[in-house]
Each structure stands twice: as C-alpha cells, then as structure tokens.
Specification:
CATH topology: Translation Initiation Factor IF3
Strand content: 25-35%
Structural class: alpha+beta
Oligomer: single chain
Strand order of the largest sheet: 1-2-4-3-5
Shape: globular
Low-confidence stretches: 1-11
Distance between the termini: 39 Å
Order of helices and strands: EHEHEEEH
Helix content: 25-40%
CATH class: Alpha Beta
Mean pLDDT: 82
Radius of gyration: 15 Å
Number of helices: 3
Number of domains: 1
Length: 127
C-alpha cells in the first residue's frame, strides 16, 4: 500500500490477536479520504469485512477519525479497540501511544476480554 500505509508482520505484537489479512497502518501523512475509500471498496467486494487500522503517536487521532467515519458508512460493524505503547527510538524514557482498532461485521466474543468493545448499533437496538 502507498501513502504511508503498509502491512505489519512483526511477531509477538498485539496485531496477532486480530485475525485478519486486511491491515492498514495509518501514519500522520496518510490521506484519510484514500484510506476510507479503500476500506469501503473492500466492504463492497466482500460484505464480511474484517479490517485492522492501527497507528502510533500523532496518527492515533487519525485512526479514531477514520474508524468513526467508516462506522457511519457501514452500520453493522463491531469495533474492538486495543491501546498499547512503544518506546521512543530517540528517547527510551518516552512512551508513544499505539492504537489498534479492529472493525468487523461479525462479532468476536473472544476479543471482548482483551479489548475495548463497541457493539454494532443495529444489534444494540435489537437487544
């Protein structure tokens, strides 16, 4: 992927708990419009969307904004959120926030214990 997005294959990191092939790393230079369009086109191809958005540092706010806009366009999404931190490469005493947002059209009960969870609005009304 371009525009600051790439696949992450680091072993032993929280991404492993989210079982998905579709991962987008958002950086501060990422185009929100392009990332949102990419996710929505993926959903049109396959209605069983599972997508992992993640970013760190200044990109955390952008990850949240993208997830909220996508959820507004695809109403049947479940959101699982995991917040982590990483050491700064320049200054080991500084901690940089890292946010993972997993969006799925299918609920994943096993993730509720490990992550924050926001129920699909459609299921919330039906309950």
């Amino acid at each position: 992927m371009d525009m600051g997005q790439d696949q992450d294959t680091t072993e032993g990191n929280p991404i492993d708990m989210f079982k998905t092939q579709y991962q987008i790393r958002v950086v501060s230079q990422s185009s929100m419009k392009r990332v949102i369009a990419q996710i929505l086109s993926k959903y049109k191809e396959d209605n069983n969307l599972t997508c992992l958005l993640w970013g760190q540092g200044r990109a955390v706010g952008k990850v949240v904004s993208i997830a909220e806009i996508v959820k507004r366009n695809i109403s049947a999404l479940h959101q699982y959120t995991y917040l982590d931190s990483a050491s700064s490469q320049e200054d080991r005493s500084r901690s940089i926030p890292r946010l993972y947002i997993f969006l799925s059209t299918v609920p994943h009960p096993s993730l509720k214990d490990q992550c924050g969870y926001q129920q699909s609005p459609i299921q919330a009304i039906a309950s």
